[in-house]
Amino acid sequence: MFQCVFSSSVLQPHSTSCLFKHLFYHSATPASQKQPEPIYSKKTEIQRQTVRAHSVKLFIFSALQVARQLLLQQQQQQQVSGLKSPKRNDKQPALQVPVSVAMMTPQVITPQQMQQILQQQVLSPQQLQVLLQQQQALMLQQQQLQEFYKKQQEQLQLQLLQQQHAGKQPKEQQQVATQQLAFQQQLLQMQQLQQQHLLSLQRQGLLTIQPGQPALPLQPLAQGMIPAELQQLWKEVTSAHTAEETTGNNHSSLDLTTTCVSSSAPSKTSLIMNPHASTNGQLSVHTPKRESLSHEEHSHSHPLYGHGVCKWPGCEAVCEDFQSFLKHLNSEHALDDRSTAQCRVQMQVVQQLELQLAKDKERLQAMMTHLHVKSTEPKAAPQPLNLVSSVTLSKSASEASPQSLPHTPTTPTAPITPVTQGPSVITTTSMHTVGPIRRRYSDKYNVPISSDIAQNQEFYKNAEVRPPFTYASLIRQAILESPEKQLTLNEIYNWFTRMFAYFRRNAATWKNAVRHNLSLHKCFVRVENVKGAVWTVDEVEFQKRRPQKISGNPSLIKNMQSSHAYCTPLNAALQASMAENSIPLYTTASMGNPTLGNLASAIREELNGAMEHTNSNESDSSPGRSPMQAVHPVHVKEEPLDPEEAEGPLSLVTTANHSPDFDHDRDYEDEPVNEDME
DNA sequence: TCGCCAATAAACATCT
DNA sequence: TAGATGTTTATTGGCG
Asked: Which superkingdom (predicted)?
């Protein structure tokens, strides 16, 4: 009986196939149905900040409604009161200095406050949609208010002119002045209301205030934002979200050095959360502070600008410099239906990608778990799992396991290197091969043995997984890991059993193989000392047999090609997986959003880079290049070899794919040794 | 299909 | 004398 390893599963498949079906069911079942979604801190933060932003924006919206009502009431009072003007004769400030629209605008939250509120938020598409609708309503109201204020101001100025020229209509003038005063009083009330709301938010933890932020809840009216600025800020917020999510997981927050809107605001407090992040820079046009920033800095960090091209989804307009990019951004990607729709689409893309990532992670985990379960199945998989090519020991070897240890119950973590190497991990045959099929395994894919063993130490120790290296490589590694770079045969045995659970079984087989390799390969030198015979590694011999020059070694070139070829099925798999899980994403891609293609190409580049890095890393960290190994003394075989025997087999440790680990001496005795490859 | 090569098996010798 | 150690040969099977 096998028990499914899924935490939420209680099914106990009675056979391997049943278990496999069960696992397949798990794989096909949406994650939400089988176990809770992995809780990512970022996700939680997103939700929290979304609520925060939502509350604040709703508040702004409601505050504007209140303002509008007040103004309407004022307008009605003005119409009703008619000539009942106050008898004040003193000059009102509003009369001396025309009341600006900004003064009259009920935007009491300063840019700093707004930015502080908004700087951390990441909205879900649904929430953004709601907010965008609110935003549109907000803009509409702002426009109405603005028009109303303008009318009022025009009337006022007209009256002032008339008064100056004709000295007439003092009543109307006073009336308007009173009206303006009333406006200010009402706005002050609103301001206080807003302050209370902000304090309330602050108390609820929905609004964090920087310690150095002076008088956050309340700012003078003169420091409020004009509607245009607010509109810009809204744009910036939405665009910044788009940009932030476009850039993926860089967790960039808004760079408020580029979003400091009002120069009049006492923005002494630096609100920069991430100096490398940026926004779309829309506000830099009218902010001296932003203009002080170098455009190179912008262009280097702006997620929507790179290589002289606007990276707005589906745009790719060529912008010669950052300035023109900003103009283009402001003109072509202003806040309109198209941009908001694209923003929504982009958010869906990101969401789908995150969902896909979560699913694939889960799938990977299930695969790992599944393979471990399979490796410990006593019936179906009596042989230890071979990571490379599912080597199953021969019948006699598997039967002759006097030192077999019980299977380790621990669940080892998956090997790092083979996973990242991709093809070196599991072949399709490993899933289906049954019986004593002996398959060749070697140091494939240029995995540096030392790093692989170091990275996957726990895995190899706990899982009966055959290390993807030849016996010769392992022997050499064992010797080199020893303090004196020499080991007795028994110590080599111990190293094998200590480091690899796989070698805790079938001792007769692999020990024979170890002895065979020690004798076979010239690079292993037997040295007699006081302890008896110890084995060392002859690095010269070892390095002689590493024809790894990429430019000249066809096997390496082939390996490189196969590495690249691996990317193609991976892309296909990725896209198939995406298609399987995210139709909207495909819709997005079909709309011309290059995200999917970019993602695929990015992954392809990453893989290529990884492969190249692996190759270079391998050559760097290859045994032949190890400084430690380079200084290792060369031992001479005490037993003079017969010339015929000297042609015995040797192996390569870290040659390319399908290259021999250790080539026979015979093969290299007459071949020119390419020293460049060392 | 063939050759190469690592893994495996086994025989044999030598040593402890 | 048994077991460990070391050597050699043959076979198998993967892979280019």
From this structure: Eukaryota
Q: Does the CB of A440 fall within 7 Å of any strand C atom?
A: yes
**Kindly report the CA angle at A419 between A414 and A421, in degrees rounded to 5?**
150
Helices (H), A276-432: 288-291, 295-301, 322-332, 337-375, 395-399, 416-421, 428-432
Residue A570 has pLDDT above 50, yes or no: no
Q: What is the mean pLDDT of residues A133-152?
A: 58
**Is A518 within 7 A of strand C by CB distance?**
yes
- Give the nucleotide at minimum CA-to-C1' distance from A427: C14
Instruction: Decide: CB of A555 under 7 A of nucleic strand C.
Output: yes
| Angle (CA) A445 A447 A449, round 5° | 145
- Whether residue A290 contacts residue A281, with contact meaning beta carbons closer than 8 Å, is answered with yes
Q: Mean pLDDT of all residues in chain A?
A: 49
Does at least one atom of strand C sit less than 7 Å from the CB of A527? Answer: no
Q: Which nucleotide is nearest to A473 (CA to C1')?
A: B6
pLDDT (tens digit, 9 = 90+) per residue, A55-68? 434 344 444 444 45
Q: Which of residues 380-419 of A touch strand C (CB under 7 A)?
A: 389
Would the Cβ of A295 be found within 7 angstroms of any atom in strand C? Answer: no
Question: In terms of Cα–Cα distance, which of A462, A464, A466, A496 is closest to A481?
Answer: A496
List the one residue out of A653, A678, A612 whose CA is nearest residue A444: A653
Under the banding of pLDDT at 50, 70 and 90, the label for residue A131 is: very low
Strand ranges in A210-277 using DSSP code E only, listed in sequence order: none
Strand C footprint nucleotides (protein C-beta < 7 Å): 4-10, 12-16
**A515 CB neighbours strand C below 7 A:** yes
More confident residue, A428 or A163: A163
pLDDT computed for residue A346 by the predictor: 80
Between CA A96 and C1' C14 the distance (Å) reads: 95
pLDDT, tens digit (0-9, with 9 covering 90-100), for A266-314: 333 232 233 333 333 333 333 333 333 344 444 456 778 877 888 887 7
Distance A193 CA to C9 C1' (A): 96
- Alpha carbon A144 to its chain centroid, in Å, reads 43
Taking the C-alpha atoms of residue A479 and residue A494, their distance in angstroms, rounded to an integer, is 11
- Determine the Cα–Cα distance for residues A384 and A372; give it in Å rounded to an integer: 10
CA of A466 to C1' of B13 (A): 32
pLDDT tens by residue, A452-492: 888 888 888 888 888 888 898 899 989 998 998 899 999 99
At CA A514, angle to CA A511 and CA A519, rounded to 5?
A: 130
Query: Tell me, in Å, how far CA of A523 is from C1' of B11?
Result: 25
pLDDT, position A362: 77
d(CA A611, CA A619): 12
> Nearest nucleotide (C1') to the CA of residue A664?
B5
Nearest protein residue to C4's C1' (by CA)? A490
CA triple A356-A412-A361, angle to 5 deg:
0
**What single-letter DSSP state applies at residue A36?**
P
